[in-house]
Amino acid sequence: MKKFVNLVFLCLFSLSILCNFSNANQAIYLHRLLNSRRSHTFPLSDSWAQLQEKGEFSPVYVAPQDGLMQADKIDKLPGQPDNVDFDQYAGYITVDPLAGRALFYYFVESSANSSTNPLVLWLNGGPGCSSFGYGAMEELGPFRVNSDGNTLFRNNYAWNNVANVIFLESPAGVGFSYSNTSSDYDRTGDTSTANDAYTFLVNWLERFPQYKTRDFYITGESYAGHYVPQLAYTILLNNKNTNQTVINLEGISIGNAVIDDSAMATGFFDHFWTHALNSDETHKGISTFCDFVNGTESHKCSSFVEKALLELGNIDLYNIYAPICLKTMLKNGSSGSVNYFDPCSDSYVENYLNTAEVQRALHVNPTTWTGCRDYNWTDMPRTILPIIENLMASGMRIWLYSGDIDAVVPVTATRYAINRLKLPIENAWRPWYLNNEVGGYVVEYKGLTFVTVRGAGHLVPSYQPQRGLTMISSFLQGGIYLHRLLKSRRSHNFHVSDSWARLQETREYNPVYVAPQDGLMRPDKIDKLLGQPDNVDFDQSRMFILWIRSYGNWALFESMVRGKHFFEIIMDRRTMVRSTYELRQNQSFLYLVLLLNFPVANVIFLESPAGVFTPV
Ligand SMILES: *[C@@H]1O[C@H](CO)[C@@H](O)[C@H](O)[C@H]1NC(C)=O
Ligand SMILES: *[C@@H]1O[C@H](CO)[C@@H](O)[C@H](O)[C@H]1NC(C)=O
Ligand SMILES: *[C@@H]1O[C@H](CO)[C@@H](O)[C@H](O)[C@H]1NC(C)=O
Ligand SMILES: *[C@@H]1O[C@H](CO)[C@@H](O)[C@H](O)[C@H]1NC(C)=O
Ligand SMILES: *[C@@H]1O[C@H](CO)[C@@H](O)[C@H](O)[C@H]1NC(C)=O
Ligand SMILES: *[C@@H]1O[C@H](CO)[C@@H](O)[C@H](O)[C@H]1NC(C)=O
Ligand SMILES: *[C@@H]1O[C@H](CO)[C@@H](O)[C@H](O)[C@H]1NC(C)=O
């Protein structure tokens, strides 16, 4: 459960604490793994660089797939909404017949233009977490699970609007993917994962031959920062060496990606500090005593790290501003909305995927599905940057995107990692827009594009579905949507000297203007506000009345208020739902009156300085 996440981070750095969490999700597994590697010794050498030199070609296992596509077609997912206008498939692809190892996939086609839209593979991270349970059912898939755990609602911002999407549960052992040789799970690592995923793809394209020549992209998030470049690289090598299927790989796009361990550790704590989650002292201690580059760990470093994690409190690190899942929030039966990501979604999905009827519809053998699996991971380079450089050299499109309020693999980590590549900038940092709002920022380096998605956490399509879809559409189309719209900055010269520091020293006393106010309170009182709800049941002492005087153009002023500009500036929309206002007018004044219910304080909103909201 997400609420354990900061304890898990404690696990990450203090080896003395025994950690055992069930029902955890991908980032927990990620950090548990990073912890475990401190006690294991993974080879530092980059085994991927050697791949290229390997002369011989060993063809992968390819089985006949005739007729299996039709068998994989899903009639209907239990509880799915009406008007489903696209095809869905699910099933296993055997990647090793001797071991009895098979990977499970879920495939959704586009409803329109599926015969021309690109083919996209999606991979979640962990390592060991399910692309179906997280990716398809909570992020970018066409459906999400309602709080009853039995029915689905439509995600209008699903990525199958613009692509045909394969969700692959990888490696074997994750979700519905399995091996009949259980010792396979002890031999799992980056290399075996990439090789199995490649074998999967070759066989999948035999099963769906109409996609063999389609433009193909690999996407994913988190620990897929390893999977995606490694699989892409494996494809490039095999495309060169083989006369079996050439996979038409055009590009990769990875969100909040684990690509460089030391950049990640530094970016992690810097993000805490710059987002007001840690104290100055703790951040300074970490900067002083922790050497994340060389990886030597001092006792002082560990104790500051522990402090940093305690200082966070119980927040959702996947989205530092999101609510956490509390038992009382579970409203079994209420239907979900794609515009509000329910923090308890994990349990709805787990319930749904463990329903016998659902498993039948997905063509899986009856089993217990869990979101993540724990592995003793066998190989894991500390940095993926050399592979990314190789991919850049091949000329494929490479995007790294980042939800900017994720604290697990934060935007700072990605930036530090990219900076290590020392790439020339081709198009400088600029905002990109959606519905006239900044959707995020983009900078194009030579060979690599970095995009942020504003207000998104670790699972970008969960927290910002519309911006996530715009981002991936732009990626698939080569960036044409991300047009340049720089606001010009005014260059004024302000006085540099600080007149405020001298205020305290002023000796003379200048009394301010004070007018008699007797009897003026009563006329200010508001009887009842225009449009005020009937059931205003709070007492007068807790009712605060604000009013604003404005002189001048009534029509303009009114249109500003009615156009909601005022509200958006003053407060968020959620708060405004509980408030109401009235505009009043006599020959000399215009009033705007707000009625609010503040249980803990009496609040004055002062329109200041003169001229504010006084159109001329
Ligand atoms: C795994 O074993 C089961 C039971 O024997 C069998 O039905 C299944 O086909 C095997 N899986 C693979 C991929 O060989
Ligand atoms: C399908 O493709 C056509 C031609 O490229 C395009 O005009 C249309 O908008 C596409 N439809 C959808 C729903 O993407
Ligand atoms: C919701 O309630 C129904 C009926 O009581 C029950 O069958 C189902 O398991 C519940 N779902 C969850 C997620 O608790
Ligand atoms: C290429 O294909 C031919 C015919 O299918 C086969 O005989 C040959 O072994 C293949 N070569 C490689 C390197 O796989
Ligand atoms: C890391 O190690 C290298 C080589 O031993 C050394 O030059 C460098 O100063 C070290 N970095 C830090 C931050 O200690
Ligand atoms: C990982 O290895 C350790 C020691 O070899 C063992 O105790 C543990 O059970 C293994 N964990 C898993 C998930 O296989
Ligand atoms: C307009 O209303 C204000 C506030 O109630 C009052 O002080 C003022 O005398 C009124 N002016 C006219 C012309 O009615």
TrEMBL record:
Q: Which organism is it from?
A: Fraxinus pennsylvanica
Q: In terms of one coarse class, where is the protein primarily found?
A: secreted
| Protein name per Swiss-Prot or TrEMBL | Carboxypeptidase
Per the record, its GO cellular-component terms are:
extracellular region; vacuole
Tell me which EC number(s) this protein carries: 3.4.16.-
* Single GO biological process annotation from the record: proteolysis
Q: What's the superkingdom here? A: Eukaryota
Pfam families given in the database record? Peptidase_S10
Q: Specify whether Transmembrane is a keyword of the entry.
A: no
Q: What class of enzyme is it?
A: hydrolase
Q: What family is it from?
A: Belongs to the peptidase S10 family.
Record's keyword annotation contains Amino-acid biosynthesis: no
Q: Where in the cell is it found?
A: Secreted
The UniProt keywords, alphabetically, are: Carboxypeptidase, Disulfide bond, Glycoprotein, Hydrolase, Protease, Secreted, Signal
Q: Name one GO molecular function term.
A: serine-type carboxypeptidase activity
Q: Which residues form the signal peptide?
A: 1-24
